[in-house]
Amino acid sequence: MHIKQIIIQGFKSYKEQTVIEPFSAGTNVIVGRNGSGKSNFFAAIRFVLSDAYTNMSREERQALLHEGSGSAVMSAYVEIIFDNTDKRFSEPGDEVVIRRTIGLKKDEYSVDKKVQTRADVLKILETAGFAKENPFYIVPQGRVAAITNMKENERLNLLKEIAGTNLYDDRRIQSLKIMAETNSKREKIDELLEYIKERLSELEEEKDELRDFQEKDRERRCLEYAHWHRLQETNNNTLEQIEEVRQGGAGATTKDRAQLQKTEKEIAALDHKFQELKQTLELLAIERRQLDEDRKDSARSQAKAEMKLKHLDETRHSREKAQQQQEAELNEVRRRIQAAESELAKITPDYEKWKKEEEEVAAERDLAANGRKTLLTKQTRSSQFRTKADRDAFLKSEIEETTIQLANQRANEMDAKEQVTLVENSIQQLEKEIQNIRDSLEGFGQDRSSISEKLTKAQEAREQLYEERKRLRREEDKLGSLLSNTRADRDNAEADLSHAMDSATARGLAAIRRLKRERDIPGAYGTLAELMNVPVDAYRLPVEQVAGNSLFHYVVDNEKTGTMLSEYLHKNYGGRVTFMPLEQLRPRQVKMPRASDAQPLISKIEFDPMYEKAFQQVFGRTIVCPNLSVAGQYARTHGVDAITPEGDTTNKRGAMTGGYVDARRSRLEAVRRLEELRELYEQQLEDLDRIKKEDETLEQKITSANGEERKLDQQMRQFDSGFEPLKVDLRTKSLQLDRERRHLEDAKKRWAAIEKNLKEFDENLTAYRAEMDSEFKKALSAAEERQLEEFGAEEHRLQMQLKEISRKRLELEGRKKSLETELRAHLRPQEDQLRSQAFENSATGGSGSFKDAQKELKKLKKAAAEVDRQLQENEEKTEGIAAEIAELEAHKAQKEQEQQELQKRIDQYQKKLEKNSQTKARLLQQAAEYAKNIRDLGILPEEAFGKYEKMKSEQIETRLRKVNEALKKYKHINKKAFDQYNNFTTQREQLLKRRKELDTSQKSIEELIQHLDHAKDEAIERTFKQVSREFSTIFEKLVPAGHGRLVIQRKAAGSSKNNRNAAAEVSDEDAAGGGKGVESYSGVGISVSFNSKVMDEQQKIQQLSGGQKSLCALCLIFALQAAESSPFVIFDEVDANLDAQYRTAVAALLGSISKTQKTQFICTTFRPEIVMVADKCYGVTFHNKTSTIDCVPTEEALNFVEGQVSGK
């Protein structure tokens, strides 16, 4: 074991926390300038480990704190860390940390960060080898000089201290003190024995006179007993009479009280019924108001429906007539259209036939005309040209021109053909679109009726949803009223129950209920009162009396749940609750009596078996008995608690509790009522939530129905608004169709003209080519002449035929155009107009609207009738409830009168009972006084119970006066002579016994003192031998050429007070055989020789130089340390006064001891010898009034000490 590390903060010159690098287990040297803080470092070690700093004043404490510049230091500490790998300390661990902290008002030790007392720390140090008797493991400055200058007797005292003689001296002083106290007690006992002897002689004379007095006094006590006993009997008789009167009236009063409780319950039931009826009446009033509003709404709606129906009925006939006329006209127009279309279908084939024939005849005519024209042109051309070449040139130019025209006409033909096709396609598309529009207009009324029917159904569905919502909101209003009343009743019940318990418990239970509503706590079950049911009312009072405040103890599953709830209450200031964790409950089983008049109380309670432990804990030791006498008997014989149905209790120790208990203030009933109200309130809340959810669902349905209705209404408006555009579109497309048809006729005419031109150009081209191929002649040939005539005749004939055919075609064409114009311009527009008027009439209202209005009015009348029926039913219920309330009030008034009469009788009996109670109390007080007087008489003789029993009271009083007169002459007598004589005799025997014990004790103490003196002498002699031997050994190591020893100085044989200095020298060998004892020792001397081994040449320490004296002092210190080995030694400049050769020897000795004995050395020095053998060196510096200490290399430490030596 060694000092591993030291931490200093705030101590003397060490202001900041100074953590010193771990020390070596061998030799450690600390160097530094004077005043740098080396001595303060050693003072810090002594501050923790020695007695140098104890019982300090405030100024001394202040002196230990750093007083440099900067902020003031209010506390300081020094911490020493020991290496405990060898387990020299009893503390566990490889390190032991001892810290001492000091302030102006604080002085505290700690070991391994645990606060310890100073005595505990010293004890720990002593177990590790730091002997209090050997303080030389810390050697401060001046200690060597002090030992050097010690006198022989001082060295002897030091040796005694090392030997531990202080312990023997303390025990010897303590024994002497006890022996002195024993002698003092013996002297007091002797004085008491002398006094007792004198008193016993005096009491012998007083005993005879006391016998006469006792005879008279015996008679007086007998007479007084007879007198007080007579009065006591009279008093008891009077008390029995009062008790008989009380018992006689108690039965009637009990019946009256039972009847009063029954009446009060009936009144409470009537009040409850009255409240229910009143609440029902309020609900009926709410319903009546709602029905009145419904009736008003229904009346308004019915009036509007009637007015609407009346208006529709007034305009219905005119509308129907107009509709009939429009239908007739529409049918007529449709007939005419059909006739025109039939005639047109019949004319069109003939027209087409004549037109085709006309075209064929016209083509033949044109062919004949072209042939004639060609011949005529040929005839005229013979006179026009002279030669064939001229003619052919002309024909070629004509052919070319005709060819060009023919090509143009062919292009025009294609264009005309395409135009005709486009117009025909456009006409077909327009006809199709017009037909679609007409079909739409034809089915418009039916589609509108379908949408109107859907809209009507949607409105009816929406009205039904509105009625359902109205019904739900009425139920919500009713339930809200019920909920408000239930909440008020629940709050009143909670207030009543909270008055039955202390406020802290009430707040705690309320807090737990709130917590359980916020989150699920499966292990929190409830209070005992909530978990039980007492089905028989007769046992409710015993259960309440036995349970007491345990009714509100909270049952939980285990300790963890109880702790969690308790911490929640503590954190939220929620009151206090007693918890019953089922896992931790261990109810003691009690053997119950098996008898019909002793029933276990727990058998009268209903509860869940899982709570068995909790109920056994509270009710498991209690039985129910019919009366207190039976209850007391079972309680004593079976060791149980017992209770009566009236609530009177007794236990096995005989304690009884009884009296009147007001059953009206039943806590179980209050809990039951509160639970019912809470369940009702929760049920009503659930119903209200259900209705609100249904209302929300209904609102969604209503929103959906409104959306559907708006959608259908929008479709209807779109439908109605879409009719007029259809009409406009029909007119527009009809006009467009007429234009397209005219355009088609023009296109066909153009196409026909182009075809005609093509034919002519083709014939001309053929003729030109033929003529060009023929010979050039001046006149026509005969054949050509005949052909010309034939062409002329044929043209004339075909012209006449064409004229006749054209006439017939024109007749048919005129009729066809007339029919088409009639259809297109008159009949079709008239049909469209009549159809639109019919649709508009159906849209603005007709028989359908009238039927709808009738249906709506019928429905409103039916709803009004239902409202009237509900109002009638409401009035009947209201009248019935009002009658029932009147009957209840009358019944309640009757019961209240009965209650007042019963209360009056009970109050009268109570007053009488109070009067008797006062009388009884006075008699009981007198009885107590009589009993006290009899007790004061003490133990009476036998004659007191028979001799004076038949005497009259006057005779007793007379004799008593005479006896009292006779006793007056004995006033001076010592009435306690016999008792005092016996007491003194007993005391004398006890004192003699005690004196004998003190004599024995003194003898034992004298033997102990002799033993202590002998042990002390042996310890001193043993220590002297060991120290002397070590001194000689160490001196020879330090001074090899010399020799040294310790010498005991004895008192001379004839020494006296006048010759104190006379003494003889005795060596350590002679000290053991001197035979004169330690008491003859006068001191310890030092005898050394530095140059010789011969004893005779030794010198005493007084004859040596200063360096030699210091060396001897160091030898003595090393010897003392070897006698009481220490794990470490601290030297503060012990080599200051040594010569160089001795410093070297001391340094070598330190290294030798460190290696062989495993002793740690921590030294300060200004010399290089110890530095050279040191394992570690430390340097102390001082800056700004603050010291610091750091580990430095050996070379740096040597340089420093050599510099100090050369500086000096």
The tally of beta strands, per DSSP, is: 26
Strand content range: 5-15%
Q: Would you identify the regions where 5 or more consecutive residues have pLDDT less than 50?
A: 1054-1064, 1066-1075
What is the CA-atom radius of gyration, in angstroms? 73 Å
Strand order of the largest sheet: 2-1-4-5-6-7
Distance between the ends? 38 Å
Mean pLDDT: 78
The major beta sheet can be summarized as: 6 strands, antiparallel
Helix percent band: 55-70%
How is this structure best described in words?
The protein has 1208 residues and is of the alpha+beta class. 69% of the residues lie in helices and 10% in strands. The chain is built from 23 helices and 26 strands. A six-stranded antiparallel sheet has the order 2-1-4-5-6-7. A hairpin with a 2-residue loop joins strand 6 (107-111) and strand 7. Helix 6 packs antiparallel against helix 7. The longest helix is centred in the first third of the chain and has 220 residues, at 165-384. 22% of the residues are buried.
